[in-house]
Amino acid sequence: VEVPLRILRALSRKPIHPFYDKEFSNLYKESVSFLREVIGTEGDVLILPGGGSLGIEAAIANIIGPGDKVLVLSNGFFGEVLKHLVNAYGGNVLTVDAEYGEIVEPAKVGELLEENPDVKSVVMVHCETSTGVVNPLEEIAREVRERSDAILIVDAISTLGAMPIKADAREIDIVIGASQKALSVIPGLAIVSVSERAWKAIERRGYKGHYMNLKLWNRGVKEGKWPSTFPVNLLYALHEALRMIFEEGLERVFERHRFVGGFVRSLVKSLNLRLVPSKEEYASDTVTVFYTPESISPSELRDHLLRKYKVMIAGGLGTLRKSTARIGHMGYGADKRLLKAVSSALVRSLRDLGYSFDLERVEEVLKRLE
Ligand SMILES: Cc1ncc(COP(=O)(O)O)c(C=O)c1O
């Protein structure tokens, strides 16, 4: 993900505010108000020093206890990670699975909850970054709310700041994001929103850990007594990134991602390559995952792009590791100028590697960036 100069400058500011002073606290609170709008919640939002995975594990550790029935939805690599984690914390895992490239069907979630009224939590990924599929959050959340009082935990790491989450409107209890994705900050901060219902569940669970203890971080926000030293510069950078999002306007940021997502998919299709999402309407505006031509392996394509054109794309994950490549277009990576460079490098690389396609059709799509 592209990190703009303004954010890099904020990152390298002299850390004059220790994490326990008033200025730090104000900056944290201001960042939280921005994040509330991004997530669509009036509830609490915590910013934790660590990767997005810290946010996920903290949510699970604070909510899920041994023997709890937990429904985990999975249609890819990151869904499988959630199953593993819930298991690790003693949860009794039930699953609704879907093939890679498909969405998790809301009706199946409804059926399972109907058959298992004692499910305490539902855990899912919003955008499954390994396939580029966005799960139908609104419909799944509706099934959860109509059929249970379960705590709904959503890994929105690859959508937060790029696509609407609407946590309160959909009654989502915990939303997890990460600084290095659509917020365009470097890695290092996890974001976790916590609803009133989730705080009650956390109270009941009584998690005793320290660093991942959401109650202790919340005490930091409210009283300035933090469980650990905060990497202050990361907060400067996050705060600046959020200011930039709101200067542009949140809706416009979402719209920019919609345009870019549509563009990248059209480009891939014009190259006669197959998208992993089985239907285009399932595809994310933040990452496009496609099968490379049979004659070109994902690592060959990636290495060539990097070596010859200095453009970095990602390889496949999980079962798609050897057949797919991923183009990230989130945050300030979702930018016409940058996409021009990436698109032209992709087209040239495929040609360099001996793949043939209808250049006129591709050029027609490329015109959309003008
Ligand atoms: C959907 C999803 N969940 C979890 C993670 C893990 O996040 P992190 O690498 O910040 O720990 C990622 C990272 O790509 C992701 O895309």
Question: Explain this structure to me?
Answer:
The strands form 3 sheets. This protein has a 7-stranded mixed beta sheet with strand order 1-9-8-7-4-2-3, with helices on both faces. Helix content is 45%, strand content 15%. By secondary structure, it is α/β, with parallel strands linked by helices. Helix 4 (77-88) links the parallel strand 2 and strand 3 (92-97). It has 2 domains: 5-248, Aspartate Aminotransferase, domain 2 (3-Layer(aba) Sandwich), CATH 3.40.640; 250-369, Alpha-Beta Complex (Aspartate Aminotransferase, domain 1). The protein has helices at residues 5-11, 22-39, 52-63, 77-88, 106-115, 137-147, 196-205, 214-223, 232-248, 250-270, 298-309, 336-352, 359-366; strands at residues 44-49, 69-74, 92-97, 121-125, 127-128, 133-134, 151-155, 174-178, 189-194, 287-291, 314-315, 324-328. Pyridoxal-5'-phosphate (PLP) binds at residues 51-53, 78, 125, 129, 155, 157-158, 178, 187.
